[in-house]
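Handover notes (outgoing to incoming on-call)

Open items:
1. TP901 family phage tail tape measure protein: sequence verified, structure written out, both below. Nothing else pending on this one.
2. Nothing else urgent.
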Amino acid sequence: MLDGLPPILNLAIASGEELGATSDIVTDALTAFGLKAKDAGMFSDVLAAASSNANTNVGMMGATFQYAAPVAGALGYSVQDTAIAIGLMANAGIKADKAGTAIRTGLTNLVKPTDAMATAMDKYGISVEDTNGKMKPFRQVIEELRGKLGNLDKATQANVVSTIFGKEAMSGWLSVINASPEDVNKLTNAIDTSKGATDKMAATMSNNAKGSITEMKSALEGAGIKIFEVVAPSITSLAKEVSKMADKFSKLNPSTQETIVKMAALGIAIGPVIGGVGKLITGFGSILSVGSKVTGIIGKITLATKGVEVATTTA
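TP901 family phage tail tape measure protein structure tokens:
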């Protein structure tokens, strides 16, 4: 995960999204497309370029990928080509889960059409496979749909698209088929030359107050992730030991349990006194105050643990 963290941090800064949400968007999509953490930079750049050249944002694109990526990835389609379809739908106001559902349904129908769908596809020469039976790139499928259905009269076009893609998905696919060449070229070129887009957007955002705040939050969240990964083994070890002690405690007789609880309570009562004494030492008040709290906590755990150990030994 750490390998992909820097581009995800920059994407969070560039988009204004929370780091956690941005991380989910990127990592979930990478998994669906069969990509690795090292590809996080590429995917982040595609999102940054598409969101700034279409009527959408990273959050809504993430919601679309959540629905569309598993099918698109299974068909071997690229992140870039899928992002083109997402961007064209977004330009027509079809975004987030609605666009994701349209893409997922449409691709499923193209691959496994009913008899009626297959008849319509054959009539207009639409196929997702080439003459050798291999899957065509998604971009080629989009181009063929636009070329073969784009010039039909509106009534015929609506009927054909509804037959192939279904009534719920037809609006999304109509927006892809009828998108202007200018919009298609603008979005396609931006995605094809997207390398470095995330860094550029993050740099721009960081120059204003909102971007600086987002950058600070993302940096803190990122530091938290790294710190947790470092201390996680120790936390796990401590949790296991505490669990063992709790299990032993639960097996003691009530009288022994009561004695241990009283010992722990004594530690709680003594803790603040020790902390107060620490604060009286000139120049080291703050440090010893924190130290006494930590010592108090450790002391309580140790006291209770020793009680359990003694009790289980003698029980």
